[in-house]
Amino acid sequence: MDLILDLTFPELASLLKEWNEPDYRALQIWQGLYQHFWKAPEEFTNIPALLRTRLKAELNFAPLIPSTILQSSDRQTIKTLFRLPDGKAIEAVLMRYEKRNTLCISTQVGCAMGCVFCATGQMGFTRHLSSGEIVAQVMHYARLLYDQGEVVTNVVVMGMGEPFHNYDHTLAAIDRLNDPDGYNFGARRFTISTVGLIPAIRKFTSEKRQVNLAISLHAADDTLRASMLPVDKRYPLDELLQACQEYVAATGRRITFEWALVNGVNDTPEQAHLLARKLKGLLCHVNAIPLNPTEGYSGLATTRQHADKFKEVLSLSGIPCTIRLRRGMDIRAGCGQLASKS
Ligand code: SAH
Ligand code: SF4
Questions:
Q1: Ligand 2: which of 122, 162, 194, 201 to mutate, judged by most atoms within 8 Å of the beta carbon?
Q2: Ranges in the chain, pLDDT < 50
């Protein structure tokens, strides 16, 4: 059965037209979905019962069934495992600290990119999510927060999967959530993270969106980077950084580089110096995070001393760097720890 959340507004409107409904119905339903967060046809009490019955018979309103919900011991992180209509599963995480409610959402079941330190990469690729399955993760948490008088403040597309490998569905999901007549979630409050698929970065650049872009770098030379991120063989570092330069030049937006600090591997002063040289003059920010443990990778997290030194080398070269705290470790909700075996 088709997912109602897969439909764009024009698609919903034309479907209702085919059903001989008056023009204003589409907006009523759209607002029910994206402003009232109704998740079943029964909740649409402002439309005729007959139409509710037809909607129920012809469209799936609930593509994600929350099946395991874990809360971290500090109660700031919630991870939900969702069952999809075909029985596959994905995870999405809500992180609540200070005044932010940040969602980390998935774009694929598994991932084809095979980054060695990532649990999602270790499970391989199963399939892309549809735009509606991506949207539904946000609506799930939007509803949960709404019931507590709160809202989602940021969405990071950094869960399972490589968003630029599923480019069209990912951007369609963002567009749908962005709709002023619907959920109206500002483009600037989204961040997409990519492992570095250059053609997609160029396409994204040409679309001049307000969405933030983050690039998973993790190493400052191709030998090291290719040993961690197989995709580097296809899209080497200097070409990737060239595409990043073009992005910054075309959009005027700052780009974020992500770096999982692995003890003795990429947290060395040599890597930091090399990175500083490569990023010189680029409007950017380095987000470094101590590696989160995963079953399939034996590398260890950096130490406090190495991380501080890494940051210092970059800072002295004028490159802003933040060392992020690891969150949600006890429920395996950290970066790179999402996988769908519950
Ligand atoms: N596929 C995209 C987005 C999902 S991964 C990408 O790779 O960018 C989100 C971030 O978590 C990426 O920066 C990724 O490199 C990082 N990551 C993966 N495994 C990790 C781990 N074990 N510890 C810390 N960060 C990790
Ligand atoms: Fe895929 Fe990103 Fe994990 Fe690499 S880090 S395997 S691209 S999800």
A1: 162
A2: 342
- C-alpha 55/C-alpha 336 separation (Å) is 38
CA of residue 307 to ligand 1 center, whole Å: 18
- Structural domain that includes position 103: 65-331
> Please, is 150 exposed, middle or buried when counting C-beta atoms within 10 Å of its C-beta (0-12, 13-18, 19+)?
middle
Of the residues 60, 90, 110, which one is the last residue of a structural domain? 60
What is the per-residue pLDDT for 342?
47
Do residues 43 and 64 lie in contact, with contact meaning Cβ atoms separated by under 8 Å? Answer: no
Whether residues 42 and 73 share a domain: the answer is: no
d(CA 288, CA 303): 12
Q: Total structural domains in the chain? A: 2
For 41-96, the pLDDT digits (tens) are: 999 999 999 999 999 999 999 999 999 999 998 889 999 999 999 999 999 999 99
pTM of the model: 0.97
Triad 94, 97, 100: Cα angle to 5°: 75
Closest ligand 1 atom number to CA of residue 336: 19
